[in-house]
Write a structure and sequence with these properties.
Strand content: 35-45%
Number of domains: 1
Helix content: 10-25%
Structural class: mainly beta
Oligomer: single chain
Shape: globular
Number of helices: 4
Order of helices and strands: HEEEEEHEHHEEEEEEEE
Largest sheet: 7 strands, antiparallel
CATH superfamily: Electron Transport, Fmn-binding Protein, Chain A
Radius of gyration: 18 Å
CATH topology: Pnp Oxidase, Chain A
Strand order of the largest sheet: 3-2-6-9-10-5-4
Length: 201
C-alpha cells in the first residue's frame, strides 16, 4: 500500500499514528504566571542533545480557553520553564487521567490524585514519585506547519532520580518499567533490555 497523506489513506484509522513507535511519554508539568499548576502527557517527546542536555515536546491541539494552543505551551510562554516527568507503567492510570480536557483553572495533580513536589531550580511542581524528572528552561517555541502545532525545546538544568532507579551507578529502567505510546489507544512497556556495541567500540 502507498498513500499520500494529503489525499487520505482510506483506512478506518490513521496508520501514521502507529508507524513511529514506541514513543516515550513526556509528562509535562507547568505552572502559569498566576500560580496554577498543570500536568499533561505528550507522546511527541524526546531528548535531542547531550551537551548541554536538551529535550523537546510537541503540542498539536488547542483549547477554546487558550487560543492557538493548550495549557502546557501557554504556561511555558508565560514563565519560560517546565518539567518533564518520566512515566512508569505503575502510573499509567493517573497519567491517563491527567490527559483529560479540563478547564485551565483545574489542577491535574489534584484532579488525578497525584502527589507533587517542588522543583529545585525552577518555579514549577513535579510528580513526586516519578522515576525521574527533568527541570527545563525553555530555549525556543517553534510553530511548525499546521494551525496548532508547536514544538517546545528546553535545556535541562536540574535532574531528579528516584533512589531505587540507580543500580551500580547506572540509571536502570528495568527498576520501574517505562511506559511508551504506540498507535491509536495502544501502549507498551519496557520489560527487558539488551546491549549492542558499536563496530568502533
Amino acid at each position: 500500500m502507498f498513500y499520500r497523506p494529503a489525499d487520505g489513506h482510506g483506512l478506518p484509522h490513521n496508520p501514521f499514528n502507529a508507524i513511529v513507535t514506541p514513543r516515550p511519554i513526556g509528562w509535562i508539568s507547568t505552572r502559569g504566571a498566576n500560580g496554577q499548576n498543570n500536568l499533561a502527557p505528550y507522546s511527541f517527546f524526546n531528548a535531542v542533545a547531550y551537551e548541554p542536555p536538551q529535550v523537546m515536546f510537541a503540542s498539536t491541539a488547542a483549547k477554546e480557553d487558550r487560543g492557538d494552543t493548550k495549557d502546557s505551551v501557554a504556561n511555558i510562554r508565560e514563565t519560560g520553564v517546565f518539567c518533564v516527568n518520566i512515566v512508569e507503567y505503575a502510573m499509567r492510570d493517573v497519567m491517563n487521567a491527567s490527559s483529560a480536557a479540563l478547564p485551565r483553572d483545574v489542577d491535574e495533580f489534584a484532579h488525578a490524585g497525584i502527589a507533587l513536589s517542588p522543583c529545585s531550580e525552577i518555579d514549577c511542581a513535579r510528580v513526586a514519585e516519578a522515576p525521574a524528572a527533568l527541570e527545563c528552561r525553555m530555549t525556543q517555541i517553534v510553530q511548525i506547519k499546521g494551525a496548532h502545532n508547536h514544538v517546545v525545546f528546553g535545556e535541562v538544568i536540574g535532574v531528579h532520580l528516584r533512589d531505587d532507579t540507580l543500580v551500580e551507578g547506572r540509571f536502570d529502567v528495568t527498576t520501574f518499567t517505562p511506559l511508551s505510546r504506540m498507535g491509536y489507544r495502544d501502549y507498551t512497556r519496557v520489560t527487558d533490555i539488551f546491549e549492542l556495541r558499536r563496530p568502533d567500540d
